[in-house]
């Protein structure tokens, strides 16, 4: 005679039975909701700026685009480029170097939309 099954011994299945399908559905939903990486258009190239890069400068370097720089920290202005289209943010706060109207510093900014820039 076997022992009666207690509530703790029962296999618990997630709601909707066949938990595997439910999990797969969630995974597909998460992929569909994942925002696409902003694209940087420069010198005829379109470069996806994925989260692995901490700045536009490093994203450009990752795509073998030659960019001027010096301090890499928002102080000198050497990485200044013209922003033709799109929006960027400065995650560490506004840089100390002068940034004119329609310009950005690539070393300390990230795109929040697709952008088009022009190098010097
Ligand atoms: S490299 Fe100096 S401000 Fe960007």
From TrEMBL:
Q: Which domain of life is it from?
A: Bacteria
Query: Which intervals hold domain 2Fe-2S ferredoxin-type?
Result: 26-120
Q: Which UniProt keywords apply?
A: 2Fe-2S, Electron transport, Iron, Iron-sulfur, Metal-binding, Transport, Ubiquinone
Required cofactors, per record? Answer: [2Fe-2S] cluster
Q: Does the keyword Transport apply?
A: yes
Which InterPro entries does the entry link to? Answer: 2Fe-2S_ferredoxin-like_sf, 2Fe-2S_ferredoxin-type, 2Fe2S_fd_BS, Beta-grasp_dom_sf
Q: Where is this region: Disordered?
A: 1-37
Task: Give one Pfam family, short name only.
Answer: Fer2
A molecular function annotated in GO for this UniProt entry is: 2 iron, 2 sulfur cluster binding
| PROSITE patterns per record | 2FE2S_FER_1, 2FE2S_FER_2
Instruction: Give the UniProt family note.
Output: Belongs to the 2Fe2S plant-type ferredoxin family.
Q: Name the chain's protein.
A: 2Fe-2S iron-sulfur cluster binding domain-containing protein
**What organism is the protein native to?**
Thalassomonas actiniarum
């Amino acid at each position: 005679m076997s022992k009666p099954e207690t509530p703790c011994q029962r296999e618990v299945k997630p709601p909707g039975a066949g938990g595997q399908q439910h999990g797969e559905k969630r995974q597909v939903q998460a992929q569909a909701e994942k925002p696409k990486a902003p694209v940087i258009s420069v010198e005829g190239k379109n470069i996806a700026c994925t989260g692995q890069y901490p700045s536009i400068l490093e994203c450009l370097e990752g795509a073998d685009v030659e960019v001027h720089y010096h301090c890499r920290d928002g102080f000198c202005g050497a990485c200044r480029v013209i922003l033709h289209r799109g929006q960027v943010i400065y995650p560490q706060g506004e840089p100390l170097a002068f940034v004119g109207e329609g310009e950005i510093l690539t070393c300390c900014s990230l795109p929040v939309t697709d952008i088009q820039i022009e190098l010097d």
